[in-house]
């Protein structure tokens, strides 16, 4: 059974102006993401990628269709269960979304505090996570003292804190220079390989997909226009 099955999913928003039709952000999308995939979703701005990710995460309801995660149809469960399931999905963002008033440790600890993990266990887990992303020496620094690449590594540590089975990366390297992008992609590849986490990578950059994704779906105007193994979808010289 696939890890994530998206079946004929549509998401539309009410018209922006009177007289306009609804905005169809995602239009009849079906995809199967297998356990252990690094699945790329590529498309220009406005293609519907972020909306699709918010639907997978259950942050917004679908207009039609269903999304099965780990054998549960997340479009058919109450908000309470959805919040529990969301703990099993980590997320990283283009702008990192770190709390500037908290140290690096404090940022990584945040989701564990929300989950009420006891203090001693939490400290151990945070140390382990910072070690994994190579930032043990920055535990007491603040986000603005770190480079962009380092901040994204903190974002990854935080996303991994609750031991998710899935990591959603929304334009996670788009704010980074090429060298730092490589560093973050290498870390994501390790997350996939060493921790066995399924990763969904959203990007408008072909290079990112070519470097890390084994499969790819190309989105245009809310639809998947092509999908398959990256090796087959991308032309080679
Ligand atoms: P991408 O991530 O590929 O840039 P988005 O999913 O952000 O694309 O947007 C897809 C389309 O849906 C765009 O036309 C966008 O304006 C529209 N859209 C996204 N979110 C909303 C919203 N909350 N309300 C209205 N329209 C939205
Ligand atoms: P919300 O609108 O629910 O505050 P955001 O849109 O800021 O969420 O971020 C989306 C998701 O990213 C949240 O559901 C949460 O799981 C995660 N997230 C955002 N900020 C943090 C944070 N400081 N610590 C841990 N997780 C966070």
UniProtKB/TrEMBL annotation:
Q: Name one GO molecular function term.
A: ATP binding
Can you cite a GO biological process for this protein?
amino acid transport
Q: Which residues form the ABC transporter domain?
A: 4-237
* Annotated GO CC locations: plasma membrane
In terms of domain of life, where is this protein from? Bacteria
Q: What keywords would UniProt list here?
A: Amino-acid transport, ATP-binding, Cell membrane, Membrane, Nucleotide-binding, Translocase, Transport
Q: What does this protein do?
A: Part of the ABC transporter FtsEX involved in cellular division. Has ATPase activity.
The UniProt similarity line reads: Belongs to the ABC transporter superfamily.
What assembly does the database describe for this protein?
Homodimer. Forms a membrane-associated complex with FtsX.
Protein name from the UniProt record: Methionine import ATP-binding protein MetN
Q: Which organism is it from?
A: Microbacterium barkeri
């Amino acid at each position: 059974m696939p890890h994530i099955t998206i079946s004929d999913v549509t998401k539309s928003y009410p018209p922006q102006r009177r007289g306009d039709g609804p905005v169809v952000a995602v239009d009849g999308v079906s995809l199967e993401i297998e356990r252990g995939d690094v699945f790329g979703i590529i498309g220009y701005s406005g293609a519907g990628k972020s909306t699709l990710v918010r639907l997978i995460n259950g942050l917004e309801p679908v207009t039609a269709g269903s999304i099965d995660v780990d054998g549960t149809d997340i479009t058919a469960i109450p908000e309470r269960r959805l919040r529990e399931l969301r703990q099993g999905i980590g997320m990283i963002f283009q702008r990192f979304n770190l709390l500037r008033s908290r140290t690096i440790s404090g940022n990584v600890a945040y989701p564990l505090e929300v989950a009420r993990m006891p203090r001693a266990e939490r400290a151990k887990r945070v140390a382990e996570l910072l070690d994994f992303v190579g930032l043990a020496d920055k535990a007491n620094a603040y986000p603005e003292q770190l480079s962009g690449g380092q901040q994204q590594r903190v974002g990854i540590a935080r996303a991994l804190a609750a031991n998710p089975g899935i990591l959603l990366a929304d334009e996670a390297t788009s704010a980074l220079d090429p060298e730092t992008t490589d560093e973050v992609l290498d870390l994501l590849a390790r997350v996939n390989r060493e921790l066995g986490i399924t990763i969904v990578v959203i990007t408008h950059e072909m290079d990112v997909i070519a470097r890390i994704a084994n499969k790819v779906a190309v989105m245009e105007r809310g639809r998947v226009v092509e999908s398959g193994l990256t090796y087959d979808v991308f032309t080679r010289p």
